Amino acid sequence: MAQALPVDTMHPAASFCPNAIHLSRRQDPKYRAEVEFFDSLVRQMPEGWHVFYHVGWLNRDSYGALRDGESDFILAHPVHGVLVIELKGGFITLLGQQQQWISTDRHGIDHDIKNPFGQAKDSKHTLIGKLREQPDLANTWVGMHHGVAFPDCPRQEGSIHPEADHNLIIWQEDMQRLPARVVEILRHSYGADTFRNGHEIVAALHRLLCRTVTLANPLRTQIDAEAREIQSLTDSQIDAFAKFQRIRRVAVGGGAGAGKTYVAVHRARQLASEGFRTLFTCHSKRLATFLKSLLRATPNLEVYAAEDLARQYCPALPQDATEAALAEGLFDAATALTARPYHAIFVDEGQDFTSEWWPAFEALLIESRKSVFFVCHDTNNQVVRPGAGSLPEDLAPIDLDENVRNTTDICAALKPYYHGQVGIRPRMSVGRAVEHHLYAEGTFSQVIGRVLSRLLVTEGLLAKDIVVLTPRAAEDSALPALALPAGIRLTADESAVKRRTVLWANVADFKGLERTVALVAELDDRLPTDPKGRDAVLYVAFSRPRSLLAVFHTEAARDWVGGKR
């Protein structure tokens, strides 16, 4: 969680976004200078000021190419103006002949850094362009200026660099008088001009850079459309969102329930709402159907299962085409297009894709490797499809390690089947205990019927809250033909779920989806004897429910599924 400053050191008037720096960043020596500068602003900035820390954005230049923008700090006031600040900690040196800037840290170690004045200037210009994209500022003068902070360097006389105007620098001596120094820089920069449209510009900065960090959870099936759960973002998700603003090619990894699809959906919506043509794709048609229902109202955003995407661009593909043929057909069709269709592509369950798909997807991007390419993947190396699992090598890895789907008890039940390097830390409440139901041959219908009756009749759950999962294919499962009490029946058709008709599905086919309650059935001696295959099935199955997991197993599978004796 974020570690806020002690109350007696916080200035109550200035507005901060974020309002505190998270503990993981505070403890990282790399951010020492930024944290100290942030804390100084908190103590000193008076009413009317708006401080944005570690923010980023993405827009297009006059030729339509994508441009990244980011800033260490933005200080905005509706009267005084807007100052974009690039901060460099340590002792700063400029090697004139090489035009190389160097920061020497407190341990005497040199670090090559970019020209801070060039960085600040570029950030200012891209931010002005981004603000001008907003309809209410499209025909408005947007004026802002830039400065550089060297908080560890005493004031120096003489010219440092042609771009390094002393009037634009915050020195070590200025750290105790930041409000006055910021106003001095703005007055120098504006000169005889005045800051116009200040209230509109500050409001636009808030809309762009300080979006709320609570979102309707997009993977929660609708228990009640009027009472959808609102979930606060985890520390790792907040950090991931900050990185997404700066990195175009990303691989988001983590175990089941870490919120990978959750953050991808949010980022895809964000880009689409800003006018970027966006594709969201996955391997599973069932998952694609769910994502379509979730995202159908979002302009500029299309959702396809990978096979359907290939057939959309290459309709001549035969119905029995292999996976390699589908991917190659999509690649050939995409490279033949006169105009490529997407600024951004999001791929969910990336571990399901074979290597042929990656060049096919990237061939659809307008600016190729300069476009946004975002892949979510499960870091459990047991659930990779044969021949799949290799991601493009140049994706920047971002890992989410907090489980935000399952209760603590469910999370504990699935952990023995997870074999990945990224941890799974439960974040939800303890919840109801995992239920284990032992059945003997001939009693399965009676045992599962009793539990379904309790959930639907006694406990008042809706049919759409529940899924019954099996590791077996439809032709091998007893579920479709079960005789159940109280008018309860099972269906494989999602659209038929209502009243006391409950969905049943194959475990592998339900990957990427979830329900409030999952009954995992038909766990017996027909489970894979290979530990890797068996663990993969149980990991996916046990991670589907949010609130209650009920496991139905025979004596032969007791040791495999954690049943107590």
What can you tell me about this protein's structure?
It is a single chain. The chain has 565 residues and is of the alpha/beta class. The protein has 3 domains: 208 residues, no CATH class; 187 residues, P-loop containing nucleotide triphosphate hydrolases (Rossmann fold, 3-Layer(aba) Sandwich), CATH 3.40.50; 127 residues, P-loop containing nucleotide triphosphate hydrolases (Rossmann fold), CATH 3.40.50.300. 28% of the residues lie in helices and 24% in strands. It has 15 helices and 27 strands. The strands form 7 sheets. The protein has a 6-stranded mixed beta sheet with strand order 2-4-5-6-10-11. The longest helix has 17 residues. The radius of gyration is 28 Å and the shape is elongated. It starts with a strand and ends with a helix.
Number of helices, where a helix is a run of at least 4 consecutive DSSP H or I residues: 15
Major sheet attributes: 6 strands, mixed
The residue fraction in helices comes out at: 25-40%
Question: End-to-end span in angstroms?
Answer: 40 Å
User: What number is the mean pLDDT?
Assistant: 86
- Spatial order of strands in the largest sheet: 2-4-5-6-10-11
Structural class, from helix and strand content?
alpha/beta
Radius of gyration: 28 Å
Q: What is the overall shape?
A: elongated
Quaternary organisation of the protein chains: single chain
Count every beta strand, where a strand is a DSSP E run of 2 or more residues.
27
Proportion of residues in extended strands: 15-25%
Weakly predicted, low-confidence segments: 1-12, 213-231
